[in-house]
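Hi Y.,

Following your request, here is the sequence exactly as I used it, all 514 residues.
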Amino acid sequence: MTPDSLHRTLEAFLAGSRHALVLENGARLFDLEHSKYAVSGEFHKCLLHLWSAERNVVRRVLDAEVKQETLRLSVQRMGQVKPSRLEICRERDARTPAARQAARLAYRQLLLRILERRFPGFGVTQLRTSPDLERSFGPVYTRGLLCRGQSAFAVLGVNAEETQASIDAALTFGILWLDLCRETQSARRAVEGLKLFVPAGASAVVHERMSRLNRDLAKWQLYELNEREDCLNEMDVFDSGNMATRLTHWADEAVTRRRFAAAIAQMHALIPEAEVVVLSLGEVAFRHHGLEFARARLAHDADSLQSRPELVFGLGAAERVLGEDCYEDFLRLVRNLRQVRHADGPRHHFLWRVHPERWLESLVVRDIGLLDEQLDPACWYSQVPAFSASDRAMMDVLSVTRAGRLAVIELKADEDIHLPMQALDYWSRVTWHHLRGEFQPSGYFPGRELSCELPLLFLAAPALRVHPATDTLLRYVSPAVDWTFLGLDEHWREAVRVVFRKRSLSASERASAA
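Below is the corresponding structure, written out as tokens. Let me know if you'd prefer a different format.
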């Protein structure tokens, strides 16, 4: 491959790999979630520069191959002749397939022993890890059934060697497994509820999500399993009094925009349609249809001991300080964005395909009233940090109705089985802070009178890209959550249009149904 083709391959892969791991000769080198990179061509060479708070490395890229979710590079260290192997893995579980399978089989045996010891009088059946892709079950979760007479419990467990993301997602598959067990066992026994087993110290996200499920539809039981000590601890699922979450203060946008007025003017001269997003008092981002391509921030000047604005550019974790030496590269990036990232752009190009949710969000916030006429188009916040225990995420849009009721809006551009539980998670965090009156003291909704009612929850996705499990998952959500599911027209890049909507049942509707 030529240096130019290597450069394009790296840029295309890395633009959508914000959370990837970088391994060198099998050893973990960087986590791109907390690191930066730059790809450059000097002296007809393709150079990859990676840095974080711990280390700083430069490698010359000799060859590249994309295989599934991994970019495999042959690289050369500066001053050395012998090449080494660098892998950039989007899949954060770097274990070999054999190691994963061995851990899952061992966990199945452990869970079987625990179930037999902890629940005497129950019989354990169908305990397995085999995939059932037709029903969305993979090998990550061990699932089975605890039976006693004509009653039973669905069982699902995940071992401590799986990623935290897999542990947090366990409730999604637990609900689906419960629903399937009820369907298949209906003629023989009643499946009362779900017993969910997660590793010790890793239950925070699952615990909060489970506390928002319908208690009338099933018995929800959560256990932390300490695999080393072979012991089990049942959690109180409906006690969220000690929820670990925090709300960041929203920056004063007017002050920040004045501080970076020159940088904003410079960017709009090059790309007038660029979206300016205030990230903090000391940083703003520039996006084109939701894709961030540059930032203006305050940088420390060692000579004057003062802070001064600087511009950096790049996609994803890529970052280069804008200067004369790379100005042409920056202009090339801007030109590519304008030529590719629009509704009629080339769909095969990575700049058109990357971060579709951000693109959808950028269109929705132009007039959120298009989603629901209750929503106030003049009052919204996008990419609001949502912190809970060890989990850090960004909720898509936080808004308010014209009557002052908070509204959480979660968007997906592609099929995602986790949409309902992820949205429920964000709703829970917003509800927690709202009940404590923390939004306005933190800079949100100044001058607005907020309703005491619990927030509304809106979930939106293209109508033909809604995961088949969505209806099942929403059916088990607590009636306290007032949710609306919006199916969008497939051509949302041209215009956002709602083609169908589904709502949770009101109290009177539930009473009538009963």
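The chain is about 25% helix and 35% strand.

Thanks again,
Q.
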